[in-house]
Amino acid sequence: MSLNKINYNTFKVFENKVFSNNIYKLTIKGNFQGIPGQFYMIRGWGKEPILSRPISINYINENEISFLYQVIGRGTKLLSKLKSEDEIQLLGPLGNGFDVENIKGNIAVISGGIGIAPMMYLIKQLKDCNIDLYSGFKDSVYGIEEVRENIKSLNIATDSGKVGHKGYITDIFKPELYDKVLCCGPEVMTKKVIRMCRDNKIPLSVSLENKMACGIGACLVCTCSTKLGNKKTCKDGPVFSGEDIIIE
User: Fold this and answer.
1) What is the predicted pLDDT for the residue at 2?
2) Is 237 within 8 Å of 96 (Cβ atoms)?
3) What share of the chain has pLDDT > 70, as a percent?
4) Full-prediction pTM beyond 0.85?
5) pLDDT digits 0-9 by tens, 7-30
6) Which of the two ends of the chain, N or C, has the fewest CB atoms closer than 10 A to its terminal CB?
7) Ligand-binding site membership of 69 (annotated)
8) d(CA 76, CA 244)
9) Is 172 annotated as a binding residue?
């Protein structure tokens, strides 16, 4: 499919506010669909930058959708400048998310940095689960209060030691305590969690944070290696079985 023929839908921004240090929450009114782990391609500008930005669903209810994003480049910088009533273009929901209906028992949700964004939606959708949340941040902690009532225990790690354990969240994570682990975060953290779960033979579903260009599997930018061959993170994922991912 030609990228020029992709049809985006135009909406108006309802709210775009600072959520934490360099973290914004974008809310758009409308009838949206999507499951935890899926994402939308978003653009709030004209021709430049050429590529839209993939942003995971932070939450959906009956009349709005929200996205939690970190300002880290030109595209997200432009998104952060949008105000109420500004026009924005969305394509989605895209990709494969978490199989919420088949997740039961004692569950560990582990995230790193902005990886907390899709996990907030996931935690709110899980039923018949005892959920322990493990979240790592550089310094400032965000998103936790919105899911605190949905979890059994909270475990925090920060690089600075300002909150919780000083160091990596994997330092205090014990996968052997759980029936299943659900993960989203930076590649270094994700690989560590995959190894830990494999060593303890614990099922893992992981949402990869690979760079994406088109979001529909046409450009092959986000290819990842799995035991089933090369897969497109945007179309075949971003959620994969941890057992299938090939790591070095």
Assistant:
1) 41
2) yes
3) 98
4) yes
5) 889 999 999 999 998 999 999 999
6) C
7) yes
8) 31
9) no
Q: Is 53 one of the annotated binding-site residues? A: yes
Same-domain status, 216 and 106: yes
Domain identity same for 66 and 177: no
Residues 39 and 89 in one domain: yes
Residues 125 and 225 placed together within one structural domain of the fold: yes
pLDDT, tens digit, 9 for 90 and up, residues 71-81: 999 999 999 99
**Alpha-carbon span 42 to 55, nearest angstrom:** 7
Identify the pLDDT of residue 7.
82
Residues 87 and 106 in one domain: no
Total domains present in the chain = 2
Say if residue 219 carries a ligand binding annotation. Answer: yes
Residue 229, annotated as binding a ligand: no
119 and 175 both lie in a single domain = yes
DSSP state of 71: -
Where among 47, 74, 94 does a domain terminate? 94
Residue 4 has pLDDT above 60, yes or no: no
> At 32, is the secondary structure helix, strand, or coil?
coil
> Cβ contacts of residue 56 below 8 Å, gap of 6+?
37, 38, 39, 67, 117, 118, 184, 207, 238
What is the span of the domain harbouring residue 184? 100-241
List Cβ<8 Å contacts ≥24 apart for 148-152: 150/123, 150/124, 150/126, 151/109, 151/123
Q: What is the pLDDT of residues 91-111, one digit of tens each?
A: 999 999 999 999 999 999 999
Q: What is the CATH number of the domain that holds 85?
A: 2.40.30.10
- pLDDT of res. 5: 53
CATH at 171 = 3.40.50.80
Domain end call among 42, 77, 94 = 94
> What pLDDT is stored for residue 218 in this prediction?
83
Answer yes or no: is 224 a known binding residue.
Answer: no
